[in-house]
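User: My instructor asked us to take a sequence, write out its structure as tokens, and then describe one feature of it. I'm not sure where to start. Here is the sequence I was given:
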Amino acid sequence: MNKILSSIFLSTLYLSSFTFGGGYVIITLLKKKFVDELHWIDQQEMLDLVAIAQSSPGAIAVNGAIVVGYKLARLPGVICAVLGAVIPPFIILSVISFFYTAFKENSIIQAMLSGMTAGVGAVILSVVYDMGGDVVKGKDPLLIILMAASFIAAYFYHVNVIFIILAAALTGICKTIIRKLRNEA
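Assistant: Let's start with the prediction itself. The structure tokens for your sequence are:
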């Protein structure tokens, strides 16, 4: 158990230390670490955990660490994952706030941050491709329609993401109830 806890802590600490661009980037890296490398979670479980992390209030990076930590080692896993995910940004933001005026006007740092923006976009696109591809490979027409409708609603009609999440949750609940009723019949 201690090996799992230390691995959770060190993995989230490492990922959080070198992740720039927000929570969706760390979600991709959590998937690569715990699904692809360690094989502690399968792809479908990771999709479910990401859905939970997205629908929960708070930063998605911390929520992602919480749900992965809980899945792997319950409450001790949550504590290790959260500490690993929170310590690096806390230290980095403390240093940046101390030197804020020097960083704000430094053209080299501004250029570096602009370059990171492109990299973040690529990583987020990779997440969408990997996880969306798995939904398509599953050949569940309802999930494919839900994914496409969610994109269209958010991108073209600017529907608030909260309503999209609620609609997806309601769809999942209805699908589960219908499946249970069919199994009982």
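For the description part of your assignment, you could build on this observation: The mean pLDDT is 85. Try explaining in your own words what that tells you about the chain.
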